[in-house]
């Protein structure tokens, strides 16, 4: 049985008559119901970025499960992304070739670390797609004489998974590091045949445990491959501390700790059963006449234009039945499921979709991802004096800072790029009415 040292310590502490002459301010008194378990770095509780006790033990348990050197974050994959970019910079990487659908955390990390990403564009024109081919990676890194890295988002927000093994072979051939944002794919390790990036050849990987595992929001992992340079593992804690809060949530740490026991106790079987049910639901949704995208097992992505609706139309209709999707835009409605969803959840989704009346198809085309023209560096753009102007008046201006909600947290135009007519089409298509530009 997998140990749960963090949770055990917190549970035992909460049961005593200790006088809490320490943070947090609620002193364990209940307003929400969870305060008794919400502690700080008292004696015996260890310290996340200097772990040597219960947190270190729990991280060793996670490392055993994932087959990597695994470190906790209570601030999501965004925190891990910033730390990983720092580690690459520390090792001497001056350039990162990155899939264009990168999360804004990666872009800010590059700016903070003084690295200019070189964008790799997806094979499809889907704005959120990150399907980058091994051939395009080969073309990019084969020309590099200095240390470099490749950054991929896989799975992406639409469930697409890159060919990590092939891309890894290309990276190793040219001595480039492979860093995968696997925020949506922590569960991939526990499929009958692992599809986790670390097992497929990635050097560094981040997982948002809270997205697909029963972990509180913010719980995440930074994984370092056993085959990666020792510098990465040795400096991982320092890298995380550089960008992380000195007050990590012990509630989130406890949930990461308990997840180790949960995973080790039949999770692979429950996951397999869940995937079979989701696959069956996808077939039934297709039978209703909806287009369902191919992709990862725990996502259902409906592309409803052919059925006469935008993605956000479907989301609004489903909300009437108290069904809430993960994300919706003009092109798709995205549902994320896990073994914690009951079969009745899928039945309710199918029942609600069956009541949607088919209409004339929407023939509007999705604009291609604009290939931006860099005017100034990311860092200079983010720290420049800026102003907010209507997007329709931004032609020719330089993007200062991304203004994009989460989800999906993928900017249409990147800081430092000139706004072109193609950019304007995308801004209009995705409903972005204002944009931050460098002040003239």
Notable characteristics:
3 domains, 14 helices, Molybdopterin biosynthesis moea protein, domain 2, alpha/beta, 440 residues, Aspartate Aminotransferase, domain 2, Aspartate Aminotransferase, domain 1
Explain what the structure shows.
The protein is of the alpha/beta class and 440 residues long. The chain has 3 domains: 5-264, Aspartate Aminotransferase, domain 2 (3-Layer(aba) Sandwich), CATH 3.40.640; 268-354, Aspartate Aminotransferase, domain 1, CATH 3.90.1150.150; 373-438, Molybdopterin biosynthesis moea protein, domain 2. It has 14 helices and 16 strands. Strands 1-7-6-5-4-2-3 form a 7-stranded mixed β-sheet, sandwiched between helices. A 4-stranded antiparallel β-sheet has the order 8-9-11-10. It has a 3-stranded antiparallel β-sheet with strand order 13-16-14. A hairpin with a 4-residue loop joins strand 10 and strand 11 (333-336). Helix 1 (5-15) packs across helix 9 (250-264), helix 2 crosses helix 9 and helix 5 (134-141) runs parallel beside helix 6. It starts with a helix and ends with a strand.
Number of strands: 16
The helix count comes to 14
Q: Remind me, CATH topology of the largest domain?
A: Aspartate Aminotransferase, domain 2
Residue runs with pLDDT of under 50 for 5 or more positions: none
Q: State the CATH class of the largest domain.
A: Alpha Beta
Helix coverage percent: 25-40%
Number of domains: 3
Structural class: alpha/beta
Rg calculated over all Cα atoms: 23 Å
Sketch the topology as an H/E string, one letter per element. Answer: HHEHEHEHEHEEHEHHHEEHEEHEHEEEHE
What is the end-to-end distance? Answer: 63 Å
Q: Mean pLDDT across all residues, rounded? A: 95
- Proportion of beta-strand residues: 5-15%
Shape: globular
What strand order characterises the main sheet? Answer: 1-7-6-5-4-2-3
Q: In CATH terms, what is the architecture of the largest domain?
A: 3-Layer(aba) Sandwich
- Biggest sheet details: 7 strands, mixed
CATH superfamily of the largest domain: Type I PLP-dependent aspartate aminotransferase-like (Major domain)
